[in-house]
């Protein structure tokens, strides 16, 4: 199948092309701003499906709305008819097509062209009135407020929240791609004459700004956003795609002494805390017990011995652990416990505890095993 993609260099286009390639489609006819109508004519001779993504949404001159959203669509459809090519055509319109503004009007007449093309030729058409899209490879100050907020906040730049209570309807690029592939396979989700992306999200502008600011703060707070919330998960992925390339890494505070080090990695209010513990050869750490706090130890490098004793008995229980065989050891409450480096190299242990450390309620009682 030969697939023509207009606007292949844009936000939606880049994501769509990458996904089509992932799906195994190899014969892609990619039309970008670097091409001309002669190229388009060649593409329309041989394509079997058309993703018409090219359009104008932020022109320097308002007349460009009609040229980009109506004029170019007209040229595309005329070339398909010229070559008697009845390939299905999918077009990205906008919810603005329902409104009386120049952009919306230009999108609406582009839709009408497509419906008329279908009536005259019998070709299938898929018209998607998309809401505000967001995701990787979008452009700040162009595609969406999400891209602008992510870009600015990641760089410590100011953002504008002109109307904090305004509610946005957002759609994630990956959800769009799933729907576009369904259309390619002849199974789009339809609502009357229009096709829809079923998964959308709503959020106020103020909450959007605060959420993205929280993503930036999560590095210093060692927190993790709530990935159980679908919108938060998608926004966080988008935010990370806007990090400056020299800021992918960030430092953690290492608590270092002659025994080794202890470094907190992640702190969450509902899923506990993750830390990395490094012990020098021969060093013993721990020798304490907890009332309610519980832990999981995972040795990832070195040789260790984890020792337990119920505080009401003298019996000592031992578990040998090694980075050569990854094994999680639960630390039950009421057992004083320790971990000893019995190897010749550093012992590295990933430690999870069910609650973030609170110095006012440490729940840590020292007692030799």
Description:
The protein folds into three domains: 3-130, Rossmann fold (3-Layer(aba) Sandwich), CATH 3.40.50.720; 132-172 and 199-250, NAD(P)-binding Rossmann-like Domain (Rossmann fold, 3-Layer(aba) Sandwich), CATH 3.40.50; 254-366, Jelly Rolls, CATH 2.60.120. The mean pLDDT is 94. The radius of gyration is 29 Å and the shape is elongated. 30% of the residues lie in helices and 30% in strands. The chain has helices spanning 11-22, 37-46, 64-82, 102-121, 145-154, 173-184, 205-221, 230-241; strands spanning 3-6, 28-31, 49-52, 89-94, 125-130, 132-134, 167-172, 190-191, 194-195, 201-204, 254-257, 260-268, 272-279, 284-289, 295-301, 303-310, 317-322, 328-331, 335-341, 347-353, 365-366. It has a six-stranded antiparallel β-sheet with strand order 11-12-13-20-15-18, with no helix packed on it. The protein has a five-stranded parallel β-sheet with strand order 2-1-3-4-5, sandwiched between helices. Helix 1 (11-22) crosses helix 6, helix 2 crosses helix 3 and helix 5 crosses helix 8 (230-241). The chain is α+β, with helices and mostly antiparallel strands and 369 residues long.
């Amino acid at each position: 199948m030969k697939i023509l993609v207009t606007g292949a260099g844009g936000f939606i286009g880049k994501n769509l092309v990458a996904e089509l390639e992932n799906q195994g489609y190899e014969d892609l006819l990619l039309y970008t701003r670097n091409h001309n109508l002669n190229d388009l004519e060649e593409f329309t001779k041989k394509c079997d499906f058309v993703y018409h993504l090219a359009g104008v949404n932020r022109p320097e001159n308002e007349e460009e709305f009609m040229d980009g959203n109506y004029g170019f669509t007209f040229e595309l459809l005329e070339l398909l008819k010229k070559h008697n090519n009845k390939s299905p055509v999918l077009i990205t319109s906008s919810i603005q097509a329902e409104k009386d503004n120049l952009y919306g009007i230009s999108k609406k007449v582009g839709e009408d062209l497509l419906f008329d093309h279908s009536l005259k030729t019998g070709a299938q058409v898929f018209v998607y009135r998309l809401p505000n899209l967001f995701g990787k490879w979008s452009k700040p100050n162009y595609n969406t407020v999400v891209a602008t907020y992510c870009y600015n906040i990641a760089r410590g730049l100011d953002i504008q929240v002109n109307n904090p209570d305004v509610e946005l309807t957002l759609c994630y690029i990956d959800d769009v791609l799933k729907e576009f592939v369904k259309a390619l396979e002849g199974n789009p989700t339809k609502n009357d004459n229009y096709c829809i992306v079923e998964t959308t999200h709503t959020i106020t502008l103020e909450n959007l700004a605060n959420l993205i600011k929280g993503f930036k703060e999560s590095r210093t707070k060692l927190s993790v956003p709530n990935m159980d919330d679908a919108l938060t998960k998608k926004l966080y992925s988008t935010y990370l795609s806007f990090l400056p390339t020299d800021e992918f890494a960030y430092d953690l505070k290492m608590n270092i002494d002659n025994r080794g080090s202890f470094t907190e990695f992640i702190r969450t209010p509902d899923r506990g805390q993750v830390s990395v513990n490094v012990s020098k050869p021969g060093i013993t750490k721990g020798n304490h017990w907890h009332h309610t706090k519980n832990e999981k130890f995972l040795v990832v490098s070195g040789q260790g011995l984890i020792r337990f004793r119920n505080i009401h008995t003298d019996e000592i229980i031992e578990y040998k652990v090694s980075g050569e065989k990854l094994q999680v050891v639960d630390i039950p409450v009421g057992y004083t416990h320790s971990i000893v480096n019995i190897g010749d190299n550093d012992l590295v242990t990933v430690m999870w505890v069910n609650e973030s450390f609170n110095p006012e309620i440490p729940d840590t009682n020292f007692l030799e095993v």
